[in-house]
Amino acid sequence: MDHKVNSLAPPGPLRHNQPMAKLYFSYAAMNAGKSTLLLQAAYNYRERGMNALLFTSALYASDGVGQISSRIGIAEPAQLYSETDDLYLAVHDATESAKVDCVFVDEAQFLSPEQVWQLARVADRLRIPVMCFGLRTDFQGKLFPGSSELLAIADILREIRTICSCGRKATMVVRQDPSGRVLTAGDQVAIEKSVYLSLCRMHWEEAVGRWPVKGPSS
Ligand SMILES: [Zn+2]
What we know:
Elements: E1 23-28, H1 34-47, E2 52-57, E3 67-69, E4 75-77, E5 79-81, H2 87-97, E6 102-105, H3 113-125, E7 130-135, H4 145-153, E8 156-159, E9 172-176, E10 182-183, E11 195-199, H5 201-207
Zinc ion (ZN) binds near residues 199 and 200.
């Protein structure tokens, strides 16, 4: 993990062993392995005797238990956040009882814009790096609110790549009903687990019926 001090940063007063911290956003289409990368990065912190604080969205949590799990079978407990939680206060409170070296947020697309700013303050004022992982766009090709704010203000943006069946980079997501039919309408947040498929932009346009273009207007 790279937390180099920006050479333009003013010289201190930095706390011991705590350089300027950054807000990171690692974004991906569906099934790109972002939770695996998050858990691997958190593991790297712990392996070095550092304390990582993990958050994930309450939206998909069954029975109120927070967990970040990856398709390859690894999982870690995580604190749940919902839209009304103040994440700056949550991290600040955690630092009262233990040293916090890094904060990880999964499903960061579900953060409210205000919560993204709260996490920015964790980096800027508590000097704790914050690593957010999430989807960039929904199944209709629109930015999620949390992702939009993160793309706007994060210090470091990282794209986690996955590929379409054609071999191109998959940047878009389609949602399918149980019979495999592609859905083009519905809530941005589907609480029931739909099936999602990551496609390149070209094949996404075909899957959602935008290509070939119909009618004279477009
Ligand atoms: Zn494709």
